[in-house]
Amino acid sequence: GQVTVFAAASMKTALEDVAADWQRQSGHKATLSFAGSSALARQIEAGAPADLYLSANSGWMDRLEEQGLLRSGSRSDLLGNQLVLVGPAGTAPQPLDSTLIDALEGGHLAMALVEAVPAGIYGKAALEYLGLWTDIAPHVAQADNVRAALALVAIGEAPLGIVYATDAQAEPRVDVVAEFPAPSHPPITYPVAILTDSKADTVQAFLDYLKGPVAKKIFLRHGFTEPPQHK
Amino acid sequence: MNLSVSIQHRFAGFTLDASFETPNGVTALFGSSGSGKTTLVNAIAGLLRPDQARVQIGDRLLCDSDQGLCLPPHKRRIGYVFQEGRLFPHLTVRQNLRYGSWVSGRQRDQAGETRVVDMLGIGDLLDRRPGALSGGEKQRVAIGRALLSQPLLLLMDEPLAALDEARKAEILPYLERLRDETDIPILYVSHSVAEVARLATTVVLLGKGKMLKCGPTAQVMSDPALAPAIGLREAGSVLTATVTAHHADGLTELAAAGGQVFLPRIGVPAGGTVRLRIHANDVMLSLGRPGRISALNVLPGKVTSIRSGGGPGAMVQLKAGHDQILARVTKRSATLLGLEPGSEVFAIIKSVSVAQADIGARNQSMAKSDTTT
Amino acid sequence: MNLSVSIQHRFAGFTLDASFETPNGVTALFGSSGSGKTTLVNAIAGLLRPDQARVQIGDRLLCDSDQGLCLPPHKRRIGYVFQEGRLFPHLTVRQNLRYGSWVSGRQRDQAGETRVVDMLGIGDLLDRRPGALSGGEKQRVAIGRALLSQPLLLLMDEPLAALDEARKAEILPYLERLRDETDIPILYVSHSVAEVARLATTVVLLGKGKMLKCGPTAQVMSDPALAPAIGLREAGSVLTATVTAHHADGLTELAAAGGQVFLPRIGVPAGGTVRLRIHANDVMLSLGRPGRISALNVLPGKVTSIRSGGGPGAMVQLKAGHDQILARVTKRSATLLGLEPGSEVFAIIKSVSVAQADIGARNQSMAKSDTTT
Amino acid sequence: MDFLSPEEWTAVALSLRVAIWATLVALPLAIWVAFLLARRDFWGKQLLNGIVHLPLILPPVVTGYLLLLTFGRRAPVGAWLADTLGLVFAFRWTGAALAAGIMGFPLMVRAIRLALETVDPKLEQAAATLGAPRIWVFLTVTLPLILPGIIAGAILGFAKAMGEFGATITFVSNIPGQTQTLPSAIYAFLQVPGGEASALRLVAVSVVIAMAALIGSETLARRATKRVMGA
Amino acid sequence: MDFLSPEEWTAVALSLRVAIWATLVALPLAIWVAFLLARRDFWGKQLLNGIVHLPLILPPVVTGYLLLLTFGRRAPVGAWLADTLGLVFAFRWTGAALAAGIMGFPLMVRAIRLALETVDPKLEQAAATLGAPRIWVFLTVTLPLILPGIIAGAILGFAKAMGEFGATITFVSNIPGQTQTLPSAIYAFLQVPGGEASALRLVAVSVVIAMAALIGSETLARRATKRVMGA
Ligand SMILES: Nc1ncnc2c1ncn2[C@@H]1O[C@H](COP(=O)(O)OP(=O)(O)OP(=O)(O)O)[C@@H](O)[C@H]1O
Ligand SMILES: Nc1ncnc2c1ncn2[C@@H]1O[C@H](COP(=O)(O)OP(=O)(O)OP(=O)(O)O)[C@@H](O)[C@H]1O
Ligand code: MOO
Ligand SMILES: [Mg+2]
Ligand SMILES: [Mg+2]
Hints:
The complex is a heteropentamer, with 1 copy of chain A (231 residues), 2 copies of chain B (373 residues) and 2 copies of chain D (231 residues).
Chain A: E1 3-8, H1 12-26, E2 30-35, H2 37-45, E3 52-54, H3 58-66, E4 76-80, E5 83-88, H4 100-103, E6 109-112, H5 118-129, H6 133-136, E7 140-143, H7 146-154, E8 160-164, H8 165-170, E9 174-179, E10 189-194, H9 203-211, H10 213-221
Parallel strand pairs in A: 1-2, 1-3, 6-7, 6-8
Antiparallel strand pairs in A: 3-10, 4-10, 5-8, 5-9
Chain B: E1 3-11, E2 14-22, E3 26-30, H1 37-45, E4 52-57, E5 60-64, E6 69-70, E7 78-81, H2 93-103, H3 110-120, H4 135-147, E8 153-157, H5 165-181, E9 186-189, H6 193-199, E10 202-207, E11 210-216, H7 217-221, H8 227-230, E12 236-246, E13 251-256, E14 259-264, E15 273-279, E16 283-286, E17 297-308, E18 313-320, E19 323-330, H9 331-337, E20 344-349, E21 360-362, H10 364-372
Helix pairs in contact in B: 2-4, 3-4
Chain D: H1 6-39, H2 45-57, H3 60-71, H4 76-84, H5 93-117, H6 121-129, H7 134-145, H8 147-163, H9 166-172, H10 182-190, H11 196-229
Helix pairs in contact in D: 1-5, 1-8, 2-5, 3-9, 5-8, 5-9, 6-7, 8-11, 10-11
The structure holds adenosine-5'-triphosphate (ATP) (2 copies), molybdate ion (MOO) and magnesium ion (2 copies).
Organism (chains D, E): Thalassovita gelatinovora
Subcellular location (chains D, E): Cell inner membrane; Cell membrane
Domain ABC transmembrane type-1 (chains D, E): 12-215
């Protein structure tokens, strides 16, 4: 009756809380394996014994879907998130305009990889939308994932960084100095799906629980939002 | 079992080309530093793959380039005492000694081991590792290790060079016994003429990679032409004599072709045959039979040749019975005595100067193989 | 410059405790395998840090445990020829030879280098690496390397053991010249009595880590009590003689205390003093002056003692002039000749038996330092 | 023990198991390959040498990915091994051991090869003249003489196995109790804002284990060296 | 060249520069440390030994994080170096070289140390009796004799530097043209669905470079060994 969940690493704290709660409710255990969305997707392609895939990136989910690795009809957008600009705690609010580059004071803007990691892709899109990208691109330090970018700001190595609201909320050493408007970037979604090979009888129950109100409350508490409606 | 060797090999700047066939017993490989002795011995052991080679012990063919046959070293059953020890540093002395029987799965010969250990005086070293042994101690262990591997041929590359006289004197008889009591041929590299004369049945003289001479020890040693190659001081002759009696005062009486000879007692029973080595330097010549002197051995003979070079000395060859005796005297003496071929003289040899270390005992079978070559 | 050494050191199972002081020239370190020769030499070179040590060359104190002084090896300026070569495998022979002057930034002595290379016969090897040299070739390079490091003391641990007679005979005179023409003391480990007798001013006899005897060569060598330690065959006496004339037939005439002596020509001018070594085995005794024999050297003398052990031989000590001569004869001869202390005899010594290799030339300063010890 | 959660203890135990197996299984193979590279001449030697070094040259993620493509359940080699030998690597601790072993392999081979190259062939010749066939020469002379090198190789392999992360998480994911090694657990903590303290605890455990192994190996190696050098 | 984009060529050049500097600068230090560990006895030797091995034991991300905490602009050491020597590591290629050097350090030290331990002290003694002071003995005897070990250490360090990813990206991020090494670029491609082919191209470049270095080093090492072994 055990469910194995492959989930994007950035969901660790929230998902662990949810799984613990589910175990308390149902008596069933969910085994959570956290890694980058890409690594997990490749592992699923290679036949990983996962029941549920929770990605931070709809691109990888699309690819699995194309290959018929998802149980049909099980895919849905579970959560949404918001993109924010953060600075070390105490940093004054920063308008998202051409003063941004001065605010770096010669330092770097921390982001996730802008071509590869979702948070970086969204961030680059937003900056392009705001017309700031060309100027600021040489000053961007790209980390291998969004949490690493957050850490750069948290320890003060980068004066500013672009991360998810969920990350900003969890890290006391940073303050949100600006929020990116929703239209400035593609919608941020966390898709979820059951995998074709899944044999666990409780997988549907767990997915239902994830979509249910109790889990949603926990997710929202961690800063996630309802999934964006337009898809 | 005789040993037949034919080896050609080229290094940059050095060519070895030597063929010889030797009867059973000890074959001395003699030659100056760099003349190719170690190279030759390595080729026989299979450690060096020569350009062209044929090596045969008795009827065991070890290697024949023409047939494309070349046994690997471990199948040759050759005990090799290296010029530089080559003890296994990670094994104790005891384990080094037992290595041969261990790796070949042979029954260990405990009695033989005890005998060899005693003979070599390494009983106290058995539990030590080779690293902290003295130079001579290492070499003694190396000799023991080779002896205990039950070889069919023993190669010894200057095995005694690092040892003192007393230790040499202790080990030499054991090598003699090995020669006399077993059928194992020994190829023995040495710079010491005394050792060679004592041990060797046959001498192979190498010079710059070429074989200069191969023959019975007596013949090579008393060849005046080879004296420079061997070393003037070391030239001499080798006689064969039969033991006639052992006297109470510790002397042994022998009959040589040229007459009666006395020696300090030797361990050969009456009737046995021995070889006596006489340094040319140790022979004095007298025109009349000398009177009251301490030398007991006086052999009458006839001068066959006198060779003198640029130095003050002359090498006089005598015939005493059918034996050749070499005597090295000054030109002045030769002149004073009026020596010339045909002169009748007496060779005076101090009995003790035919010293223990120069006596080689031979058993009958060897005497035979010696004369047939 | 004299050498003063006092060293105590313990290994598990072996204790070295030796103190000696030797005059300038060559000091031979003599003793059986495992008696501590290498250990002693290592301690002098500073390679082993002994428990207790004091080493002084002339007035240069190298090491004194009491003062807590201990110079590191590279500051001692000691040339060391090791028992096992220790050539640098990554350098050519030439680079090995020049290593000493290179690392110490000294001016290289090109003439000296050429001379040493010629003397050692290693001219053809200069561009080779040590890996493929023969055993004797390696040792010759090692000797050259030590000589060319311009040392203040030379330590030689069996330097000639791997060499053939001819090569030894070539190198020995150079060591003699080193001894005679320079002020460099040499500590020479050897198992060869002939080498020791020829080279050494002083002999230090070691046994099981203890110093048994230290004294002038002549004295140690002709001490009948030490004959067993030195080896019976090698016992003998050392005489001092003055060159009186060089004759046209290649002989040199000398005056010893006991009379006139002839030798093959030696390179010492008339008036010079030389040391002659006479093997006890090479001396024959005669009651009357012998007649027409080839031996040119007949010294009258008087028997001072006769020592005979369990064997068939007897050691007869004579006084010829004020020199001691040892003669080893058979008991039978001693009885036949009726020898006893006080007997007047003639010692017959073949001139050539006082051979080239046993002649040691000494210059005046050495003769002096010799007599003062 | 309160210091670590049960799940973390599991990760510690798993890491140890993975590292020990990786080292023990890879070692004989490494000795063999080192021997080939040091002593034999054959066609393709440089190729073998290159392949051995690959895990060092490639980013670990790539190695993990290649492993996934080779030893995954759907991959030819993986399927064949599973069918014939019943040996499954994918998403098992065995896979973690495989990844760790492969990542440490070049280190082991180099250390052993270096030791092999300094063994004096004259000693091996001496053994041969005493009647030892090649394999015996190797076992009784060569092997004991290169023991310090083997120990060095083993400890390098073990340390690498304890620290290996990229290839492991890419190949066998990060499934608690099955494939979650210490480094994976540490990584997961670092993905959580404020997870540094938890990560540090695990780092400490990892360091203590590796240091113990290190000191043990030093002692062994010193003993082996002393035996060889004399006294 | 069409095979790689200009940006990718930049990454290749940067990786080469990083690997070469990392190897060259770390090598003398590695020789010194190897010498201390092999030949000297001092208090804290085991500690030094442990520290040297740390980069091997720790997951690379942790190493990168520790580097950030030590050599970052805000970190004490980093600030001091920047102020006094003008040496800045954070977000510079120099930082990538530092990370690569540190990750390869244990491999270098081990190889060199292993070689040092097999040098016959008797040869060093002989050099001393010929008048060579310690440092000369080291330079003229020890160093040439351990050359094969030094070459092995250098090539291991170089290979590792070419492949290092985790510590580098964590420490200096991924700034195209400044800190984007080949492994970072490869990683980025692997994060995107369908990026495998591009990643493979870069892997090929990386492998070719490393193989060339490998074969070069083998040739050098063989020559060095031959010199030492004779002929
Ligand atoms: N490091 C060591 N530890 C223990 N014992 C040692 C050590 N080095 C030498 N010995 C022992 O000390 C004794 C003297 O050794 P040393 O090498 O000085 O002898 P030696 O007189 O030079 O002999 P040889 O003529 O055989 O070279 C030997 O018994 C040897 O085994
Ligand atoms: N691997 C090699 N390459 C080139 N030359 C070599 C090689 N091995 C030996 N030689 C040369 O071959 C000659 C014969 O060497 P070998 O070792 O056989 O001499 P040896 O008679 O044993 O001398 P020694 O009495 O000095 O030990 C020497 O000149 C030596 O330098
Ligand atoms: O799958 Mo991620 O680690 O949130 O980009
Ligand atoms: Mg030789
Ligand atoms: Mg010695």
